[in-house]
Amino acid sequence: xxxxxxxxxxxxxxxxAVLVVRLAVAWVxxxxxxEAYYWTWSRHLALSYFDHPAAxxxxxxxxxxxxxxxxxxxxxxxxxxxxxxxxxxxRLFTRLDPHHPATAWKAxxxxxxxxxxxxxxxxxxxxxxxxxxWTAALYALHLVLEDEQPRLWYVVxxxxxxxxxxxxxxxLLPVSVLAYLLASPRHRHWLRRPQPYVAAGLMLLxxxxxxxxxxxxxxxxxxxxxxxxxxAVWNPANTLGxxxxxxxxxxxxxxxxxxxxxxxxxxxxxxxDEASRFIFWLSVPSALFFTALGLVTMTFPYWTxxxxxxxxxxxxxxxDAQPRWMRVSTxxxxxxxxxxxxxxxxxxxxxxxxxxxxxxxxxxxxxxxARVETLARACEGHPCFVFGHRYPxxxxxxxxxxxxxxxxxxxxxxxxxxxxxxxxxLAGRDAIYVSxxxxxxxxxxxxxxxxxxxxxxxxxxxxxxxxxxxxxWRCRDYRPVPAVR
Length: 485
Fold this sequence. Notes:
485 residues
């Protein structure tokens, strides 16, 4: 089939349709637990935060200021960032394969249908703004190299800086750029010119707010990422196995074609094809980093998204050469899994065990918040504060709770709530503890109160299926134990 402008426009229109569907889904999709956590950050704007840099929180703050307090307003920055990244990636792909513009836009569409990428296209994590900045940097870099526009090196640097204030893994961008320049005889001369080093200096400016925040908070985020979050016992068979399994969430067929695309790009790069060299060296170094990281710690499937961006172009080129049944089934599985994921997140009626079902944990929070507010009105003396022992539950409850009520987390892993909580101000106050059957802890044994007593429970039902039962406790006289470092 010939690839005229009309065919490319049809793939662009299909991509636009995906964006419209995402906007519709955002109206009914609940706020996810990590999204709610980042929303709590947006209520306390800062230079950086415990887990990540600040861009995500600032974007959520801007969106909710414009569109009100709603799940849609929280999702919207992710949709816009991923949509803009997709447009830039399509432009970049048409430059890398100028004779096949329809294939370029088809590759972007398939990327959007991939389950892991589909999640990042609607769920406001630090990754969507970082992916936008990464893609913008790659597009500007290609203009620098192929169109001889040296001033665009500064755009690469600024995009890298903005990526860094979105997520720490943006530090892999200059590593990938350096690897590409070293591997390219045609563009190696840039290493003898000042512009790349000025761009690197501009990117380092993105680290300034992160460093200032860490200096002010005893290097809490740096210590967490380099020490505290990693398992105490090294078990590479477990962590690497989980990493490789998580990559299958891209769907097995797509992972196979992306890896095969890297192999094809490597072979063509060795034969002198510059576009293939660009694809390989600006994606594989980050993929190798995350694979090595999987040897030492737990990883999440969407961390590798930056590695797969460029891989979808050779993946689709390879897929188009396969029999029709394979092409159709690969597209159908990718789209079908994505639709099933979001449908179940909105209406978790599939009979999956609640303990292993992330969607089950998103339901029932407005009713839980209403019960907490009723209990809080009955508090005597000082106003009660509300607490849980897991940051996802505390964040989801905070999103639905009256903002006048103070909420925090006690015990559990260290996180941003530790930095906000003022134990001295809470000492002696009563509290309401919220827990559920999925992650229950008995407050008398775990939390420093004079006394805790049950205050009822609430079943969370969807489609006649009991997802979990939320329990409420009244706790008297908070007695915090002084922190020991």
